[in-house]
Specification:
By secondary structure, the chain is of the alpha/beta class. It has one domain: Rossmann fold, CATH 3.40.50.620. Helices cover 47% and strands 21% of the residues. Strands 3-2-1-4-5 form a 5-stranded parallel β-sheet, sandwiched between helices. β1 (2-6), α1 and β2 form a beta-alpha-beta unit. The radius of gyration is 15 Å and the shape is globular.
């Protein structure tokens, strides 16, 4: 089984990782775990006039690795193999696209990652993923 776990670096966002770790005993064989962090695309044409694309890419990579750090540590402590990816774009769409690219069987996502203000402005990423994904989505509270 291939499981995609999107994480945003928050404690609530990492609950999906904790759920997968706790659920491994239920599976016949260890799952293939793919961690994903999505960075909002910041670079517009005006930004690129002042900052190089390499600098922007370094920023995405640094922010993504910071957001993945706790989830990676939890999986390593549990002795589970995983791969990780950093995507750039709109979170819900990037998550669904990554699931398709990785041929994931399931997406396990926290229902409470970002703060309340963000949810009011953008809507819940988890809800959007559940509507867009062609595969099962497990929402973890």
């Amino acid at each position: 089984m291939k499981i995609l776990i999107p994480v945003d670096g928050s404690a609530p966002g990492n609950r999906a990782v904790e759920h997968v770790i706790a659920s491994v005993a239920w599976l016949k064989e260890p799952p293939q775990i793919h961690l994903l962090n999505v960075q909002w695309k910041l670079a517009t044409a005006n930004v690129k006039l002042f900052i190089s694309q390499d600098t922007i890419n370094d920023y995405y990579r640094e922010q993504g690795m910071a957001a993945l750090a706790d989830a990676r540590a939890k999986l390593e402590a549990a002795g589970l193999a995983y791969s990780y990816h950093i995507a750039i774009g709109t979170p819900a769409e990037a998550i669904v696209q990554a699931a398709q690219e990785q041929h994931a069987d399931q997406i396990v996502i926290s229902a409470h990652g970002q703060g309340t203000l963000s949810k009011m402005l953008l809507g819940s990423v988890a809800t959007k993923v559940a509507h867009l994904a062609p595969i099962p989505v497990l929402l973890v509270k």
